[in-house]
Structures are given as C-alpha cells and as structure tokens.
Amino acid sequence: MSEQEPTTLLPFIDEVNEPFWAGCREGVLRVQQCPDTKKLIFPPRPGNPWSPRTKPTWTEVSGSGKIWSFVEPHPPLMLDFTDRAPYTAICVELDEDPSIRLIGNLLKDENGDINDFSYDEIEIGTPVKVIFRKMSDEITLPLWVKQ
Q: Is pLDDT above 60 for 126?
C-alpha cells in the first residue's frame, strides 16, 4: 500500500495483545488457548474464561476460515476513509473454531486494496485465508484473500 494508507485506526498494543501482533509481524496468526480445555480465546484477554486459575497460552492457527458476515460502511466516515469508500469489512470465522472471529478487509491479492470488492461480490461462507500487511514497524495487519 501507499504511504497515504489510513493510520487513524491502528490498534493499541499492550502486554495482553502483544503476542498477537508479534505473530502478525512474523507472518503467523496466533490466538490464546486455554491450557486445560484447549479451547481457543479471542480477542486476547488477561484471564482465562474456561479455567480461571490457569493463564491462557498462545497457539498458532492456520489462518484459514470462512466469511461469517460483512458490511459496507456508509458516510459519514472518518476522514482517512472517505476517499476509499465504498469498501467492505468482513468478519471471518476460523476453521479451527467457528466461534473465533476476526474482523478485516477482503483483498483480491497481497497487493490489493480495501475497496477491491463491492458489496455484491462477497458471499457469506466464502473460504478465505489470512495475509499480512506491514503498516508500521510495530503494526502488521491481518487481511484476507479468497482461497
């Protein structure tokens, strides 16, 4: 992407979610996991909802999933996104656990843009896989392409 890529909504990194963002910088998708039940946990949190006495660990997942939902934001938009509209945001359910869902954009390929697809070109259930795009030294975003 160009240097004019919107930066207003870059995520805040803290001690709880840093392993997720470190994985993205390394080109792998990681989520938390309960060491007792092996259930996946996302978004990252300091506690373990499945076994409160055990701290969550981090595990690598495949980065494959299906489009669970999608939306096309309408004005008024944040100024950084006005010139890029219309674009779509998708919600992806991971193959390992459909209850784990991540939000992102669907691109045509690794060099694509957030407005590659129009609303009527996206279907719920479409298989997708994660790709990663470096936005800054600290932030690499997980984005999605059709499988």
A: yes
